[in-house]
Design goal:
By secondary structure, this protein is of the alpha+beta class. It is built from 20 helices and 54 strands. A hairpin with a 2-residue loop joins strand 51 and strand 52 (1065-1067).
Length: 1088
């Protein structure tokens, strides 16, 4: 069969099938909304909702009034609409609203009630006039649920929900909900018939759509010309991809659509066009005919088109889909690399407690404004254009000229064609006031010949945060509505000032439709406009420098961008941000209002380095004097302290600055512990005060809080975590006054815990079979640490934190002398402990497992979760034996197989950092060392000392990674690695030191030491030096010795000493595992 003939026959059959389908398909009215009855509410705490009937498009509509009284939450209505879904379909309804831009969710729930699909319109701009909304199958995605089949085949209920994005209150009206089966989606369409207003000989119109770039259509004359595509029936498509004949592109053109070839509607206009390629986005366009009206040829003589392609509808559904299509159909380097399906990594810069942070990519692109725009460097030499597509960037934590002993100056270095080029970032100033982003660009001639290069700085609407990052902030495409040059050295990007400290040769701005800016640079061109406005939000600009360098010579310039100031009238802050400082453009042009921005490279450089000095001092409370082999470990500790403080917004400790730009008590409590253990205290107190103020009146502790207020979603670990954090702060500060001021929060939490436990303490759970009794006395199911987001479970993670909270609540009452409260809570604690371990025993019995499960229902293995039972919950002495050891043995077996390639895996989370501490507490330091090495190797980029939340085996797979740096993963590392040097043992009231020191540290010729390690009992310092076959320990510090004294644990690999002296006195009772020290200062000689 001839291919083209066969394809035509197939299309004919398809068209016959579509005609038959259209004849049988029927539109079904699901709800006319004549009455408001029959709908059930689905609302969270802190939300009020009311529905009523009111005049609609036809007859009545349902009116939904909502109010986010606490700032966060959700409220919606749902109703039963059982539907077996065909291969393709759409739902339609009418909508109008008077509402702020909150999330508008349309949910489809199956008959189990557990599996949910949705259309999640984030930050939705609700229409104020009646608008018909179409929801097609391709718009619906799986939201959550335990099903493994993500293809929605049946709907039981439909829900319309408003979820808080900015909060507030508003009103929605819904009318005329319909369901319609549609023909199956296809990418097989008839070849279009092509005609033109005129054609030059040998360049007929069909050559513009023949699939060959070698042939072309040319018009016979200049002036207004047109070329028309007849699709031979109405079809869907995503836009237009035009490859122009070189030099004969249309500088101005219109795109028109028609269903009959007679009545035309203008769909798009381009003016000016300066490119040999035009990729136009027409999302979900439908037409039978498409016409391109060519208004002005570039050559003044004729129009020419080599090829017209019609992108399918899915290629341009979202701005990210469109840019991915453009990137894959453009030369390498034309767009950020991740748009071509290659994962990219980054790190953060900012000021502690500021609500804004910037990102730098591993290639050197800097995202200056969240979800808005980035600055991307490119260099043109005599040989070629150098950008991310053809260099091998090397990341670092320093910048040329900085000499501090520790630097947190993320940088990227290119070495190409005799040029060393470094991009570095830093931030300074007062948070949420005059804070600034500094971007340094360093050029050095490392060749033996003079060099002349062109440096291009592109300001484009692309994020460093990639498109596959979708949580809270969608990465990828950004937004620039307008960009212009205010004066030499000062550029406005949507009102955001960008100050360049060195004079440049030229500046030019362009709209997206004018052509790809990288292609302009390749052609030796620059945009010609001093400023543009692009309604598509895809404006951009190029700054061009010409730099000459003698051999060994270097030059430098800085871009300085205030985080909070804007030029002219402000459109208002992004959600969760402070109102920006508005500066008049006239005064900026005069330079009068720019005294706050560095005016020279030297001044910018001084501020750039001042930030590094600040972080060096801020993270230097603990003094480490260790061999060079420890540098990576200690740098990771210190860098993550910096990242924790940068990610912090106001008082809120957050695990990220994009996807996780919120404050969880879970992450925050454990991260606060890492700060306290590192000598950083004030920020923890601020966090506790702020978070506790968001406690609900009934004592419930919200799982997460952000600028809108407390989130009502139940995660039942939160209640114990707040109590734990309050006690942990006291442990390091002995601040009794603060503890007393927080105690009313503690009592309210305990009462709320009691109400939760009561729900699982009824006769049903007390007297059921083993499977049912396993729930008795626990707190109810929740999504917990998000490990059970598919379906809430009775998580032991939750219950161990409840156990910890009750234990700490008892101790808090004891410290404060609140005997009545202490006695009551002690009874709760003891009863809860009994029920917790009874539950674990029953769950293991029912599931026939020999390890501690993650939850009651599944008997699942999750050692990364179980590890919190050891620390911080301090339940090792109560956990069932041998199951607790089996749990970590089973993990270690998995870990070793994965490490040597015997275990298949796709990805993992570096929460496994916690297990470092588990192995240390289980007296298995060698395993802790193995895990440290493995996890450090998976830092990406390696030099930036951090982890994302997800590590993919294929490091270039473009998959969701949570946030980067993910500072809960980082604080897990700090908490775990700190136990190598010191940890508090609650079971025997001892302070354990040196439990997992590397042999090369203790054997180093100069010895090793650590100083000012904060503990519950004060700061401790110690040094170790080998002297022949003995080791000399010197222990000092401002300590109140715990009741059990100090224990040197597992020293020298746990070898049995031949003798030990403490301050010159022989002691006995030591083992290879433990050496007891009961006085400080102490000189301990350990002989082997």
């Amino acid at each position: 069969m001839n291919y083209r003939t066969g394809k035509t026959e197939l299309l004919l059959l398809l068209l016959i099938g579509l005609t038959s389908f259209a004849a049988t398909a029927q539109v079904r009215t699901l709800e006319s909304f004549e009455q408001a009855s029959g709908w059930s509410y689905n609302i969270s705490d802190g939300v009020t909702l009311n529905i009523s009937a009111e005049k609609g498009v036809t007859g009545n509509a349902v009116r939904i009034d909502y109010d986010f009284t606490e700032g966060t939450g959700y409220g919606g209505i749902q109703k039963l609409f059982p539907i077996d879904l065909p291969d393709n379909y759409e739902f339609t309804f009418w909508l109008r609203a008077e509402s702020p831009s909150n999330n508008f969710e349309i949910k489809f729930i199956d008959s189990t009630g557990n599996n949910v699909w949705w259309v999640n319109n984030r930050n939705y701009d609700f229409p104020r006039e009646w608008t018909r909304i179409r929801v097609k199958k391709r718009h619906i995605t799986f939201a959550w649920g335990p099903t493994e089949d993500r293809d929605m085949k049946q709907v039981d209920r439909i829900e319309f929900t408003v979820a808080s994005f900015v909060g507030g209150k508003g009103t929605l009206w819904l009318d005329d909900l319909k369901f319609e089966p549609l023909p199956p989606e296809t990418d097989l369409w008839p070849e279009p018939a092509v005609s033109a207003s005129s054609s030059a000989r040998g360049h007929s119109p069909e050559l513009a759509a023949d699939g060959s770039a070698e042939s072309c259509w040319q018009s016979r004359r200049a002036g207004r010309q047109s070329i028309t595509l007849d699709f031979k029936g109405r079809r869907e498509f995503g836009g237009l991809d035009i490859a122009w004949l070189e030099g004969s592109h249309a500088e101005e053109f219109d795109i028109l659509l028609s269903d009959d070839g007679n009545k035309w509607g203008k769909a798009y206009s381009v003016s000016p066009n300066r490119s040999s390629s035009s990729i136009i986005r027409l999302p979900e366009a439908e037409a039978a005919y498409l016409r391109i009206d060519l208004l002005k040829p570039a050559n003044g003589r004729y129009h020419g088109i080599r090829e017209i392609k019609i992108p399918d509808v899915k290629s341009t559904l979202t701005p990210n889909d469109f840019i991915i299509y453009a990137a894959r159909n453009s030369p390498a380097g034309s767009y950020p690399g991740y748009f071509s399906g290659r994962a990219s990594y980054w790190t953060v810069t900012g000021v502690s407690s500021d609500t804004k942070e910037a990102l730098i990519s591993e290639d050197g692109m800097v995202e200056a404004e969240k979800a808005r725009f980035s600055l991307e460097p490119m260099i043109k030499t005599a040989n070629r254009l150098i950008n991310h597509s053809n260099v091998r960037p090397e990341q670092g934590m320093g910048y040329p000229g900085y000499t501090g002993d520790y630097a947190c100056l993320p940088s990227v270095e290119w070495k190409q064609d005799g040029i060393r080029f470094v991009t570095g970032v830093s931030s300074g100033g007062r948070p949420n006031d005059d804070s600034e982003l500094y971007i340094g660009y360093w050029f050095e001639n490392i060749s033996a010949e003079p060099q002349e290069l062109e440096f291009y700085l592109l300001l484009r609407p692309f994020q460093v945060n990639p498109y596959y990052q979708f949580l809270n902030t969608v990465g990828g495409a950004g937004r620039i509505m307008s960009v212009r040059e205010i004066s030499k050295g000062l550029i406005s990007v949507d009102g955001k000032p960008v100050r360049l400290t060195e004079a440049y040769e030229s500046f030019g701005a362009s709209k997206f439709d004018e052509g790809n800016q990288v292609e302009m640079i390749r052609r030796g061109e620059m945009p010609v406009s001093p400023g543009v406005t692009d309604p598509s939000g895809m404006a951009g600009a190029i700054v061009k420098y010409r730099i000459k360098l003698e051999p060994g010579e270097s030059k430098e310039l800085f871009a300085v961008i205030p985080y909070h100031s804007v030029i002219g009238e402000s459109s208002g802050p992004e959600a969760g941000e402070n109102p920006p400082q508005v500066i008049r453009a006239e005064s900026l042009a005069e330079g009068g209002a720019l005294h706050m921005l560095p005016q020279s490279t030297a001044e910018a450089r001084e501020k750039f380095f001042a930030s590094a000095d600040y972080w060096n001092k801020r993270t230097g409370h603990i003094r480490f004097d260790l061999p060079p082999s420890a540098d990576r470990l200690i740098d990771t500790w210190r860098s993550n302290l910096v990242y924790i403080l940068i990610n912090r917004d106001m008082a809120g400790i957050q695990p990220g600055s994009r996807s996780y730009d919120r404050s969880w008590i879970r992450d925050g409590s454990l991260t606060s512990s890492a700060l306290l253990k590192s000598g950083i205290v004030a920020e923890v107190k601020e966090f506790i005060e702020w978070y506790a103020a968001n406690q609900y009146d009934n004592g419930k502790v919200p799982c997460v809080v952000d600028f809108r207020g407390p989130d009502p979603v139940p995660e039942n670990d939160s209640h114990g975590q707040l109590i734990y954090l309050i006690r942990e702060y006291f442990n390091f500060t002995a601040d009794t006054a603060f503890l007393r001021s927080m105690n009313h929060h503690v009592i309210k939490v305990v009462d709320y815990i009691g109400s939760l436990v009561a729900e699982r303490s009824t006769d049903h759970f007390r007297n059921g079979n083993d499977s049912v009794r396993a729930y008795y006395g626990l707190v109810p199911e929740s999504i917990s640490h998000e490990g059970y987001s598919a379906k809430p479970m009775h998580s032991y993670w939750d219950n161990f934190f409840i156990m910890k909270g009750l234990k700490d609540a008892v101790e808090i009452q004891n410290i404060l002398g609140e005997n009545e409260h202490r006695a009551k809570i002690a009874l709760m604690r003891d009863e809860f402990r009994k029920n917790l371990y009874s539950s674990i025993d029953l769950a293991m019995k029912v599931r026939e497992i020999d390890y501690i499960p993650g939850c009651v229902e599944l008997g699942d293995f999750d050692a990364t979760s179980t590890t919190i039972a050891l620390t911080p919950c301090n339940e090792l002495g109560n956990l069932p034996v041998p199951q607790v050891y089996n749990t970590f043995e089973k993990y270690y077996e998995f870990f070793r197989k994965r490490r040597v390639g015997l275990q298949e895996w796709v990805n993992y989370t570096p929460y496994e950092n916690r297990l470092i501490g588990s192995f240390i507490m289980l007296d298995q330091p060698e395993r802790a060392h193995e895990l440290i090495e493995f996890l450090l190797d998976d830092q990406k980029p390696y030099a930036w000392n951090h982890w994302a939340e997800v590590v993919w085996k294929d490091r270039r797979y473009p998959g969701f990674i949570g946030d980067m740096p993910h500072t809960w993963c980082g604080s897990d590392f700090i908490n775990a690695v700190r136990s190598m040097f010191v940890y508090e043992n609650e079971y025997d009231h001892t302070l354990v030191i040196a439990a997992a020191l590397y042999r090369d540290w203790i054997d180093a010729p100069g010895g090793m030491s650590v100083g000012n390690l904060p503990t519950y009992y004060g700061d401790i310092s110690y040094s170790v030096r080998r002297e022949g076959s003995a080791y000399r320990f010197n222990i000092s510090g401002d300590l109140n010795l715990p009741a059990g004294g100090i224990r040197i644990r597992n020293f020298n690999g746990g070898a049995m000493p031949s003798g030990v002296t403490v301050n010159g006195n022989e002691i006995t009772g030591f083992t290879g595992r433990d050496i007891s020290v009961t006085e400080v200062p102490a000189e301990v000689i350990i002989k082997f």
